Amino acid sequence: MQAVRFHRHGGPEVLELETVPVPEPGPGQVRIRVRAVALNHLDLWNRRGLPGRTVPLPRIPGADVAGEVDALGPGVAGLDPGARVIVNPGISCGRCRACLEGRDNLCPHYEVLGNRTDGGYAQYVVVPAANVIAMPGRLEFVEAAAVPLVFLTAWHMLVTLARLQPGETVLVWGAGSGVGSAAIQIARLLGAHVIATVGSADKVARAQRLGADVVLDHHRQAVDEEVRALTGRRGVDVVFEHVGQATWERSLRSLTHGGRLVTCGATTGYEGLTDIRYVFSRQLQILGSYMGSKGELLRLLPFVEQGRLQPVVDRVLPLAQAAEAHRIVEERRHFGKVVLQVP
Fold this sequence. Notes:
Layout (H helix, E strand, L loop, with lengths): L1 E5 L8 E5 L9 E10 L2 H8 L15 E9 L11 E4 L2 E2 L5 H4 L10 E2 L11 E5 L3 E3 L6 H5 L2 H14 L7 E4 L5 H12 L3 E6 L5 H7 L3 E4 L5 H8 L5 E6 L6 H6 L1 E9 L12 H6 L3 E4 L5 H12 L7 E6 L3 H9 L6 E5 L2
Parallel strand pairs: 10-11, 10-13, 11-12, 13-14, 14-15, 16-17
Antiparallel strand pairs: 1-2, 3-4, 3-8, 3-17, 4-5, 5-9, 6-7
């Protein structure tokens, strides 16, 4: 089969289109014929290499997969070959206390597809049967691939952890990212008032179309000062943070008394300066988030089926142009998801 792999860490140039053996599904596994795979920042981090994170090489990246059931491993039932499916990108043991309590993203063995196991930049991928979910019928493969990781992440952050309520105000950084575009929609679904940020003027109208009430340019405006002005000096109830070092202090200063900051990433750096006095005197909550549970993905998918949550696809490239797709994401030339179509 055709697959894109990297044999060493580095820039987009390390991604190589190769011919590799088709994987065989083992007990409890399913082989998927991949039709589309969406990019995530995790793909970039795994390709670059990170201190403390071991990615076995060579590696096929790609967590967000849409395709068709191709073959079933021993012991798998209830899935028909040819069925159109998406893949829950979070893989867990299924046996520990966290998994059995429905909090599988807290499993000690939790990993994301394409990290320590081969992912979806390939014509075929093998995944646990428990991770295979029927594809929303109203979507095509490219759109469906743009759903799982970012909508699951944003749902876990806003619904499960931050407990965003109707009438509250949320600040969403980076509306042009996949997770940011998902967060705006989920916040509006919950009845919240949304202040979003973008990095260029051409992205303002697109963020507004997704449901943002106010859109700020985080390169040109002091976001925390603008937030204070917009809220009558009160601040927002929730900050949706995934940028990291470049925005951390402004995120904390944007919160009202008792506000919640929920974070899932650090694309600009890992060290955020925090005045601890500000945290305890204003009784702020800082909530760390990583992915979400299988049950949460199943709860949000009906809203996708109804069209109330819609994947945002910026552009579609062929699998052979995976390196260019990575460059587009690294250079922030996209709004929403960049998706690879698999031949």
